[in-house]
Amino acid sequence: MLVLLLATRVFAYDFAWGFGGSAYQTEGAWNVGGKEPGVFDTWYHTNFPNAANADVTTDQYHRYKDDLKLLPTFGATLYRFSVSWPRVMKGCSGEVNPEGIAFYSDMIDEIIKNGAVPFLTMYHWDLPQACFEQYRGWASDQIIPDFVKYADALFTAFGDGRVNYWLTINEAESGCKFGFQQGRLAPGLKNDTYQATIDCVKRNHLIHGAVVNLARSKYDATRKGWKFGFPSNVEWNEGPDAVSAEKRNLAYAAWYHDPLVFGDFQQDTISAFIDNKENLDAAGRAPPSFTDTEKASMKGTVDFIAMNYYSTAGIPVSQEDVPSGAGCPAYCWQHVWGQGARKMANWYYKRYNMDIIVTELGYAGVNEADMTLDQVVNDPNRLKFWQSHATALAQALEEDQVPVKGMLMWSLLDNFEWGYYDQKFGAVHVVGLGTSGGTLERVVKNSTRWLADYYRQKKYKNPFAVGKLPSFDE
Ligand code: GBH
């Protein structure tokens, strides 16, 4: 007992936290600074001119300097943002747009000035419209060389020691399914079968491998200590039937990471994937096979598991930390159970034996349109979400000894949730967001102050020091 007490006093766990966001959801300035249209710009302007869009959203393009000053006030030291491909490249893969590069270059400097480590997402769904018009974007293999050329431009511009953490593609399956199979999101391509999503995710895997190989060969990524991740949308599947739940974990989480860790799908993943009872979307299809060259290009190309986690499936509502259902509109898809995040991290560590960074974790809850500013800022459900998740992640780290090195709250600001402004994930409320004449003033939510205090008291040791190479492998 005494030994244990002493041990906890002298030994600090490695952990840091911060916030995330993405270009289309937060920047606005859709046609400013030489930016060309992305598929979401065209989708809303042309197909849904009366729907909400992100032409302005939080206006972070003009306000990032002030927004980033919030980070040190919370003691947050990680910041994830995405580069808008159509802001930095002309056409699909033409010359770079120097104004776009300058914008992100300055943003990166500001992140570092505010004591945070930049996590750069290369692609968070805002494909240049030009790539879609030329060859239907993700529906064609032609995207592979074009993406690699774009990534090359990012390495050249930002790989000078300022950016060491690279997230290639956000949530491959979501982006493929919504935009290129179901047609629910831009560019709205419809395909009757999930096979289109499976094929598209394969292109994502191959691109990830190609981009990391480029980094290693042309930019000496290993010596520089660059770290690569592939942020994956997962939910924890809990009972009631443990065998089925495990198959669902395999069919999603291992679908993403098996090829990038092992070079190919493992047999248990393949079995889980084709079992249509457990994976209704895949409906009996096998995951794609890879050539030997492709396997070699993907194997060992992630340096950590990038986990986007929001929800647990298969637990009774009575066990949820914030009950879903009551007062929650149809889009409230989150089943809040902090222990699910802990179990997901344990599952990943057991399967891959790698460090884990939670690249998204967040809570939107009820439709804030019906709430007063005071209710938004003091939302008790949001506080419960963060209490249960911060505690659960601390248990994963301290009790289970799972190396969860970091957590990026989704998101710093309320923003455009791809189709509407009703669901608000922000640590910081944005006044009048999505309304004409909104002041867009930033107001910190109380749950964020609670979380900041929680981590201050933890006194974890930050493994991501600015200006130093990442310390993972030491
Ligand atoms: C992430 O997607 C995205 O990376 C991010 O851009 C987004 O803002 C964030 O999560 C919050 O959603 O309405 O019942 O059909 C997470 C994966 C996929 C989860 C779509 C919600 C909609 C379920 N998301 N899903 S439903």
From TrEMBL:
Q: Which Pfam families match?
A: Glyco_hydro_1
Q: Does the keyword Hydrolase apply?
A: yes
Q: Which domain of life, per UniProt?
A: Eukaryota
What are the entry keywords? Glycosidase, Hydrolase
Signal sequence span is none
**UniProt GO molecular function:** beta-glucosidase activity
For this protein, the record's InterPro entries field holds: GH, GH_1_N_CS, Glyco_hydro_1
PROSITE patterns in alphabetical order: GLYCOSYL_HYDROL_F1_2
Gene Ontology biological-process entries = carbohydrate metabolic process
Keyword Hydrolase appears in the UniProt entry: yes
Family under the similarity heading:
Belongs to the glycosyl hydrolase 1 family.
Name by which UniProt lists this protein: Glycoside hydrolase
Provenance organism = Rhizoclosmatium globosum
